[in-house]
């Protein structure tokens, strides 16, 4: 069906359309059935299936936004396709049959429908060919009419999904249409590769006035920005590590005080790091880079242990500062000096050989984190909720996810009543594992493959009142035809019985064999748009736990990663997402060369975006810091560590969250480089 929006004050209505799509799926097994099938085929080709016999709803639009189950997008009426100024947006809403439909003047939008007259058997000979030609021609004519413009919901599938314990949307598939823009990207591939370079030195200094461009705002709070990432990208004997995820952890601290701002950094002195530095060579195989750095197959051929590199996240909670790596236990550091104190089981809360994820959530004064461990054919999830100011356990949940040992759960979400995990459709290539990995010719990650023809699943684990009611974990499957991988989530919240989950999705899935040696410029263009890499951008999944269904649509047309929000809104309705983003909109998704602020009330083509001042500067994860006396969600500043390839130096950009486009209000210029990092966090100064 087609929805017409013809002007700023015209009505929105749904019109029935011809959806008698036919397909030739097979041949008749007997000549005697030809006449019968021909009759059915003719009826199927010429029939009309109406999803609605009459318009479902007629509603006047007088301005503002189209509402879809709690989600609003401003309408670009009277602006001829240009974004409507946000200050002119009213909150008038319309309850549409489908969700997440961005409306602009004269746009056409398609809904997912299902034909009731599908031709299930073909004909043989001339009659079969004739029916086939007519059916294809009819189908193409209908598709052409429905796809004149960008369609958020533009594909129909009638395949049932025979997956046990998973409620997929029956006979329905949603995916995103083509981009309205396709901007060219300007960057040097060698620059991007050099951004993942080692920083073997450790620092401790104060920023002088000459090192600060602009001025740190008076309402910028006192506190510390912590940051973690790979610091060493070669072995002690100088052999390059071609996958940055295997670099040893390097924690940095930007401390903002009343009279001074300082910087310090140190390697996380893990057991593996210390042993390799003493030996002067690699002793462990990497999880992502080829395990044998010597080139000889006589190298730990059956050793399944990995070095805890403590390189992914860092968080200060209570009196502890933890360097995080999802494959093992956290390392405790001194909050002031960054000296490593050692492995920390949080007072014997964590198992001796357990896992503690690098992505946590702070919600309602609680610190919530999980551990994911493969166990045979299953995945074991352990979830802890800790109290304010320390690691006293307030709640603990453990669940076994059957049949998904390699789901690669890197991040998660927390709402009022649920923990949300996305189970990526990943499997282990057994042949490659036996013939290559066991002989150190490949990494364990390179043995992980996307499951052909399979879609991912959301796994909902009850918490709070839902847990008290005795609700059980639930799987909700993403429709077949949507191939995606999720590393990072932004936020989620519950409203009117639905769960809204916002994440960065890698369209087309994850290629674990990609590394600094193999990457090309083509990798930075989506594989569905003429490139080789996964288009990486911000998407929303709307889950209905009662019906067991999910819908997905794109929130922004600019490639991005490392989504962050104002953490005071975690698990609650919110409006803004910040992310490191591509300098271009459209199929190019990176590398990150600026900071995007996505207003969730705005159409996907509208973002507040600061582009780095040159094509040789690259942006890191943005961290939101509320300003002193903040009242609104975006009252604050966004911090991002930048690297300038032209001079091989880094700086910390401080941007006004209300107006990124104006550029940094201050830059803390550093006399050295820092390699591309991963994740960081902000710790306010204690009173």
Describe this structure in words.
The protein has six helices and 40 strands. By secondary structure, it is mostly beta strands. Strands 7, 9, 10, 11, 12 and 40 form a six-stranded antiparallel beta sheet that branches. Strands 8, 35, 36, 37, 38 and 39 form a six-stranded antiparallel beta sheet that branches. Strand 11 and strand 12 (261-267) form a beta hairpin. Helix 1 (34-46) packs parallel to helix 2. It starts with a strand and ends with a strand. Residues 1-175 have low confidence and may be disordered.
Topology:
Layout: E1 2-4, E2 11-15, H1 34-46, E3 59-60, E4 65-68, E5 71-74, E6 108-110, H2 125-146, H3 189-194, E7 204-206, E8 212-214, E9 223-227, E10 230-232, E11 248-256, E12 261-267, H4 271-279, E13 313-317, E14 320-324, E15 331-333, E16 340-343, E17 361-363, E18 366-375, E19 378-386, E20 393-402, E21 413-414, E22 418-423, E23 426-428, H5 430-435, E24 448-450, E25 457-462, H6 464-468, E26 474-477, E27 484-495, E28 498-507, E29 535-544, E30 549-554, E31 560-564, E32 576-582, E33 592-599, E34 608-611, E35 617-619, E36 623-626, E37 636-644, E38 649-656, E39 664-669, E40 680-684
Antiparallel strand pairs: 1-2, 1-6, 2-3, 4-5, 7-12, 8-39, 9-11, 9-40, 10-11, 11-12, 13-14, 14-15, 15-16, 17-18, 18-19, 19-20, 21-22, 22-25, 23-24, 25-26, 27-28, 28-29, 29-30, 31-32, 32-33, 33-34, 35-37, 36-37, 37-38, 38-39
Helix pairs in contact: 1-2
């Amino acid at each position: 069906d087609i929805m017409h929006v013809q002007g700023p004050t015209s009505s929105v209505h749904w019109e029935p359309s011809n959806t008698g799509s036919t397909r030739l799926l097979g041949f008749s097994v007997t000549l005697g059935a030809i006449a019968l099938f021909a009759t059915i085929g003719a009826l199927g080709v010429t029939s009309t299936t109406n999803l609605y016999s009459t318009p479902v709803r007629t509603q006047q639009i007088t301005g503002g936004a189209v509402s879809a189950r709690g989600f609003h997008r401003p309408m670009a009426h009277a602006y001829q396709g240009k974004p409507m100024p946000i200050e002119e947006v009213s909150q008038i809403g319309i309850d549409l049959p489908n969700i997440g439909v961005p409306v602009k003047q004269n746009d056409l939008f398609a809904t997912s429908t299902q034909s009731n007259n599908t031709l299930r058997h073909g004909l043989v000979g001339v009659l079969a060919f004739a029916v086939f030609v007519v059916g294809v021609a009819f189908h193409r004519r209908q598709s052409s009419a429905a796809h004149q413009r960008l369609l958020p919901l533009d594909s129909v599938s009638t395949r049932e999904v025979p997956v046990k314990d998973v409620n997929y949307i029956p006979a329905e598939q949603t995916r995103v249409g083509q981009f309205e823009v396709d901007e060219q990207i300007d960057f040097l591939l060698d620059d991007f590769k050099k951004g993942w370079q080692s920083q073997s030195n450790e620092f401790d200094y104060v920023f002088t006035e000459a090192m600060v461009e602009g001025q740190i705002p008076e309402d910028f709070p006192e506190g510390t920005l912590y940051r973690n990432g790979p610091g060493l990208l070669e072995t002690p004997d100088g052999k390059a590590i071609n996958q940055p995820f295997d670099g040893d952890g390097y924690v940095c601290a930007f401390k903002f005080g009343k009279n001074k701002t300082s910087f310090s950094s140190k390697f996380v002195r893990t057991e593996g790091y210390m042993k390799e530095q003493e030996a002067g060579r690699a002793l462990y195989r990497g999880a992502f880079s080829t395990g044998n750095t010597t080139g000889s197959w006589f190298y730990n051929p059956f050793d399944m242990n990995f070095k805890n590199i403590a390189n992914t996240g860092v968080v200060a909670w209570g009196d502890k500062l933890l360097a995080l790596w999802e494959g093992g236990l956290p390392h405790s550091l001194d909050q002031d000096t960054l000296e490593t104190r050692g492995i920390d089981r949080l007072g014997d809360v964590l198992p001796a050989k357990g896992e503690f994820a690098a992505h946590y959530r702070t919600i309602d004064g609680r610190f919530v984190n999980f551990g994911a461990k493969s166990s045979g054919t299953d995945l074991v999830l352990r979830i802890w909720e800790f109290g304010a100011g320390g690691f006293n356990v307030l709640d603990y949940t453990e669940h076994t996810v059957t049949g998904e040992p390699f789901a690669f759960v890197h991040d998660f979400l927390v709402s009022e009543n649920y923990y949300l995990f996305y189970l990526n459709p990943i499997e282990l290539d057994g042949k490659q594992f036996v013939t290559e990995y066991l002989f150190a010719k490949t990494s364990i990650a390179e043995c992980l493959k996307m499951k052909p023809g399979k879609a991912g699943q959301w796994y909902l684990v009850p918490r709070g009142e839902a847990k008290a009611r005795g609700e059980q974990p639930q799987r909700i499957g993403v429709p077949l035809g949507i191939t995606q991988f999720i590393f990072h989530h932004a936020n989620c919240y519950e409203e009117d019985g639905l769960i809204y989950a916002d994440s960065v999705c890698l369209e087309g899935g994850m290629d674990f064999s990609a590394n600094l040696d193999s990457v090309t410029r083509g990798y930075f263009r989506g594989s569905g748009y003429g490139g080789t890499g996964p288009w990486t951008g911000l998407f929303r999944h709307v889950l209905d736990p009662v019906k067991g269904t999910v819908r997905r649509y794109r929130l922004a047309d600019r490639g991005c990663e490392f989504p962050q929000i104002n953490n005071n809104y975690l698990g609650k309705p919110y409006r803004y997402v910040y992310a490191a983003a591509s300098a271009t909109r459209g199929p190019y998704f990176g590398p990150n060369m600026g900071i995007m602020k996505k207003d969730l009330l705005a159409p996907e083509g509208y973002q507040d975006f600061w582009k780095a001042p040159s094509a040789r500067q690259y942006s890191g994860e943005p961290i939101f810091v509320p300003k002193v006396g903040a009242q609104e969600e975006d009252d604050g500043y966004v911090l991002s560590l930048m690297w300038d390839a032209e001079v091989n130096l880094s700086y910390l950009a401080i941007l006004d969250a209300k107006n990124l486009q104006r550029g940094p209000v201050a830059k803390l210029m550093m006399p050295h480089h820092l390699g591309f990092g991963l994740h960081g966090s902000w710790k306010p100064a204690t009173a």
